[in-house]
Amino acid sequence: MIQQGHEDMEEIDIEIFEGLSRISLEKLYGEKCHIDPKTGYYKFNNSDMYVHRWIMEKILKRKLAPEEVVHHINGNKLDNHPSNLMLFEDEEDYTD
To answer: Is the pLDDT of residue 93 over 70?
Structure first.
């Protein structure tokens, strides 16, 4: 079976994510995602899209600019719950 990337998840409403526990999200990721060994972030299978960036796009209802940085508030790269994500304009804004 060929697993799809984030394309087949486009219809998922961000409110579903907000209502899910972190354990439920882990199960969803296990079916559609993998941990990128280079970065330690969840990435959609067969795609270059990182899950945390995709979730932030759903929250904002727009595509992110390449220079925008999505920060994990608690420092856990695997915790992509919407309440744990914060957007910065760019790397300079993030490091200030």
So the answer is: yes
Report the candidate in 48, 2, 9 with the shortest Cα–Cα distance to residue 29. Answer: 9
CA distance 1 to 21: 28
Q: What is the pTM of this model?
A: 0.73
Which residues lie below 8 Å from residue 25, measured CB to CB, with a gap of 6+?
A: 17, 80, 81
Q: Are 54 and 7 within 8 A, CB to CB?
A: no
| Strands 69-72 vs 42-44: parallel, antiparallel or unpaired | unpaired
Catalogue the E-assigned strands of 8-89: 33-35, 42-44, 69-72, 85-88
Tell me how many helices (H) and strands (E) the chain has.
4, 4
